[in-house]
């Protein structure tokens, strides 16, 4: 299958809420909208990498739900974080044995934050696993990843919707955010206050890039789910799927993105 248009897909971070990206990917697959390149931050980097490797969205959700990531983690013996994200490297090698961006079936870019320089760093070639880990490295919780003389943390700190790696390469960009906040009539406690404030900050840098997207998919109310609320995985997956289908129905121009079967060459005698 091929399409005349090169389609870019940018996936936000958001912890377990990133499972909703898998529902979006399932909907796009069913519709015949096939990304030419995917970019992601944090959870979006993980979901995007698994998809670009060739795993089906439902298969990825099953892997995430059945894998207890925290049992692979080790304490970080430093003041820079509580847990050591790099201890997940062996787990990721199961799913990315080649450990190289070039080994993916679909091109991928991931965003991370250089905590020393206060700049976004994009990776789309060379070693794969460390950049994915860096992109998902929540500051304070995980020790920064040391790569290429940089100390890297979560890409969502500065860019939670990395459309920039798609610009100039893709004709159409679809942005997907998994952190929409419902209105809250009652701030119940300090935890609720801090969580809401963090999501608002994440969404600010998402919405600042919304105008760069030709289409924007954002399932309503996902911000109410906790960042580690894995029990809600099926609900999150379904929410992403339903919203992608809704956006498609509301935007007839998206039909132009559907891949067309390649025409077979006819031999002349």
Overview of this structure, please?
This protein has helices at 19-31, 43-53, 57-66, 89-95, 129-135, 190-207, 233-250; strands at 7-11, 37-41, 74-75, 81-84, 108-114, 119-123, 140-142, 145-147, 150-154, 172-177, 215-218. It has 269 residues and is α/β, with parallel strands linked by helices. It has a single domain, classed as 3-Layer(aba) Sandwich (Cytosolic phospholipase A2 catalytic domain). Strands 1, 2, 5, 6, 8, 9, 10 and 11 form an eight-stranded mixed sheet that branches. The relative contact order is 0.21. The mean pLDDT is 89.
Question: Quick gist of this model?
Answer:
By secondary structure, the protein is of the alpha/beta class. The protein is 31% helix and 18% strand. The model has no long low-confidence stretch (mean pLDDT 89).
Sum up the structure in keywords.
269 residues, hydrolase, single chain, eight-stranded mixed β-sheet, PNPLA_dom, NTE, alpha/beta, NTE family protein, lipid metabolism, three-stranded mixed β-sheet
- Using the coordinates above, name the CATH class: Alpha Beta
Total helical segments? 7
The counted number of beta strands is 11
Percent helix:
25-40%
CATH architecture: 3-Layer(aba) Sandwich
Q: What percentage of amino acids are in beta strands?
A: 15-25%
Runs with pLDDT <50, length 5+?
none
Series of H and E elements = EHEHHEEHEEHEEEEHEH
**For the report, how would you describe the main beta sheet?**
8 strands, mixed
Q: How many domain regions? A: 1
Q: What would CATH call the homologous superfamily?
A: Cytosolic phospholipase A2 catalytic domain
- Class of secondary structure makeup: alpha/beta
CATH topology: Cytosolic phospholipase A2 catalytic domain
> Mean pLDDT, as a whole number?
89
Radius of gyration: 18 Å
Shape: globular
Terminal residue distance:
27 Å
